[in-house]
Each structure stands twice: as C-alpha cells, then as structure tokens.
Amino acid sequence: MTFGFGRSTLRRSLLLGACAAALSGCVTTESPIDSAPVIAPVTEPNNELRQLPLPAAKTVVAVYDIEDLTGQFKERENVQSLSRAVTQGGAAILIKALQDAGERRWFTVLERKELDNLLRERQILTEMRRIYNNEAQIDPRALPPLLHAGIIVEGGIIGYDTNIATGGVGARFLGIGGDAKYIHDVVTVTLRAVSTKTGEVLTSVTTRKAVASYALQGGAFRYVKLDELFEAEAGVTYNEPKQIAVQSAIERAVLGLIVEGAELGVWRFADPAAGVSYIKSYREHKYGADLTVAAQTPPRPMTLAPAETEQLVPKRPAPVQVTQRRLSPATVPSGARPAVRNAAQPAGQSGVRQVPGVGAVPVERQPAPEAPRQLPPAPTPDEPSLGGIPQPAGSSKVAVLTEGQG
Q1: How many whole angstroms separate alpha carbon 19 and alpha carbon 31?
Q2: pLDDT at 3
Q3: Which residue among 40, 54, 248, 317 is least enclosed by CB atoms within 10 Å?
Q4: How far apart are the first and last CA of the chain?
Q5: Dihedrals φ, ψ of 9, to 5°?
Q6: Where is this region: Disordered (predicted)?
Q7: Where are the beta strands (DSSP E) in 16-150?
Q8: Strand (E) positions, 247-370?
C-alpha cells in the first residue's frame, strides 16, 4: 500500500516537472514576430539637428520641464481611459535634443528636472565628510560648486488634435478589390529661451507634427464553380507612435530656436558665412513667399550677451588662527585650577609666577592694611587751651582785654 502511494506520487512529480519545463521553454523562446530591442535610429529631423554648423562657443542651458498642456486622455470605442494622449516625458526628449545639436557641440545641459535628488546626494556627501573627516568646510576638490546657466529652455506640448483629416479609396471588380483609409492627428510644441539675468524671453518657436495612421485592405470573393466559392482577405494597419511625433516636433523646435537665436545675436556660428547661408535657407522655409524686409532685420533683445556666464570659482579656506589667552587665577574654576609649585623666580620678575600649562602670570598685589589712626592725649589742667593766651607763672586768673582798654 505504501509502495503504490509512492509510485503515484513520483509519477505526478515527473509529470509536473515536464509541464514546467515545457512552459519555461515557451516563455524563453522568442516568437517569430518579436523583435530585439535596438538603439533608437536617427530620424530625419534628428539628422538635420546633428548636421548644424558648429557654434563659436558652447552655451550652458538649463531644462526644468516640458509640460503636457493638452489635458487630453486616450479615447477608445465607447470608453475613455485615464491614460494621457501624449507622452509625459517631454523634458527627457528636450535634453536629448539639446545634446544632439551639432553632435554635442552647441549646449552644455544642466540637470534641473530632478534637482531635489541632486541636492540630496550632495548633502549626503557633505554630511559624511563632516562626520567622519571632521570637516567644517568641504574641500572644493571633493565637492565643487554647481554650474549655473545663463539661459533656461522651457516650453510645453500645447496641442493634440485628432481626426484633422480622414479619408480613403477603394475599388472592386468581379469580387476582387481593395481599399485604403487614413487618419491624421496633429501635435503642437512650443519652446522658448529665457535669460536668467533679466528674465527676458529671448526667442520662442512653435512647431507642428502630423501623426499619420492608415490601413490597407484587399480581398477576393467569387464563385469558382457552381458549388465552389473562393474567398481571400489581407490587410495591414499602421499607427505612428505619438512619442515619435512629439520627439520630431521638439527636435525641429530646437533647430529653429538655435537658428533664430543666432539671428538675434544670442549665440553665434563659428563660420559666419555658413551661418548666414543657413539662416537664409531657414527663413525661406519658414516664410516662403511672405518674407518681408522687417522679418529679415528683427530687433535684438534688450539683454546683452545673455549666453555669457561667470561660473563660481571656490576659494581655498583660510587657515584657522589659534590665539592663546592668559588667564588669571581668579577666572580659572577652582576644580580646573592646576596645582602651583613654588619655583625660583627669574631675576627681574619678582611679581610674576609660573603656572603649568599657562605660563607666566602676573601676581596681583593686595594693598597693605592701613594702621589705626592715633588720637592725641587729653590736655592737662595746667595746659593752655588751643588758641588761648599763655599766662605768667603763678597767675591763676586770665586777663580779658576788651576793646578800649589798655
């Protein structure tokens, strides 16, 4: 009985193990339609941004956030989900686009999106060095000051409009035909460069990108014989990712921001001739036949040299000066007063005593107590009074002279 129970348990265990192995094999095996992850390829707007002429100097800029100002959610059939219609990672896309400009030769981008994390990490380093190294002032070589930007690049996704254009075409002949349908949405992005010196908006750019979706479908439906029917159908649908559309719009906005900033003198091209040619082609693409004389000579911003910044250079901490103070015995607590030993005084220093750990301390002299004053003795009977006239010997009376008596 026990042996039969053991064999059944063993069979069950082997069966479960085989099922688990089969399932694990199905999980780890990739499907033929699965694709391996790849680095995002360079698109046409990104390639144009990378091919920009070189700048005269690299500009330090800061990026805080690119907000989704559309307020729209994804819509499905007969229901609306709480997922946003456009990406919420606009700041990450903008930082990447600024770094790609001129192959990382146009801008030095500072982290401001997650500034709290950066400051918290620096605070940890400061606190650890203070606790374990007893550093009241951190060495700048261990923690240099943060860079600051002369220009802030900010903006937002200000519009996402759906079903801007819809349409299709199709045809059938003798039960064989096909059709095509398409839908266009539009996403709108705006960027601006703001001077940190004065708060002036130096330049702003608005770009739009169409989001295309289409479907192709074909089929056949006909009788081959009286009792035989032939039917076939095929189709494909493509929806452009909205994140790629937003990325393309932001990259085009960064390119426009650079060209218009160079036109206004915010920054300069290293090759003036190449810069003039690039600005001219940009104007023709932007204005077309509507280019005016006023558009060719725009007034410059009021802020002078907004891209120039003076970074903070830390000074070395001044050496701590230790001053030694001589204390008198009266100011030293009785419990902490060191024992005084009688030592021979150096010549010429009779009023100084040596205190261990302190040095020579002048001795405070106490004033000598005054002797009691001696009163004069009492006068004798035969002693004349103070201020009186002495009398002749043997006379006991005092002659009193009055006025008019001789």
Answers
A1: 20
A2: 43
A3: 40
A4: 174
A5: -65, -40
A6: 317-406
A7: 59-63, 66-68, 73-76, 79-84, 107-111
A8: 352-355, 359-362
Structure tokens at 316: 């070395």
Half-sphere exposure of 254 (CA within 13 A, CB side): 33
Please write the tens of the pLDDT for every residue from 91-145. Answer: 999 999 999 999 999 999 999 988 999 999 999 999 999 999 888 888 888 888 8
Name the DSSP letter for residue 173. E
Q: Quote the CA–CA distance of 405 and 305 in Å, as a whole number.
A: 119
Residue 106 DSSP symbol:
S
pTM, to two decimals? 0.67
Angle among Cα 155, 265, 203 to the nearest 5 degrees reads 20
The encoded tokens of residue 191 equal 């960027």
Residue 20, burial from CB neighbour count under 10 angstroms (0-12, 13-18, 19+) = exposed
Could you tell me which residues are beta bridge partners of residue 62? 110, 152
CA distance 73 to 201: 31
DSSP assignments along 336-392, one per residue: TPPP----PPPTT-TTEEEETTTEEEEPPPPPPPPPPPPPPPPPPTTSPPTT-PPPP
DSSP category for residue 54? P
Classify residue 56 by its DSSP letter: S
- Residues 6 or more apart whose Cβ sits within 8 Å of residue 357: 338
| Alpha-carbon gap, residue 328 to 340, rounded angstroms | 13
Q: Rounded to the nearest 5 degrees, what angle is found at the Cα of 221, between the Cα atoms of 215 and 223?
A: 170
